[in-house]
Amino acid sequence: MISNEKSVRLATRLLRVIERNPNTHPALNVIKDGIAERAGSFIKASEKWNTAMKLRVKERNEGLNAMNEFTATLRSYIPMIANSYPFLNISITNLIGTTPDDTLNFTDAIMEQIQAQPDFSTNTIANEFINNISPVWQNAMKEWAEYENSDSELRTASENMN
Question: Which of 9, 19, 49, 88 could form an SS bridge with 157, CB 3.0 to 4.6 Å?
Answer without folding.
Answer: 49
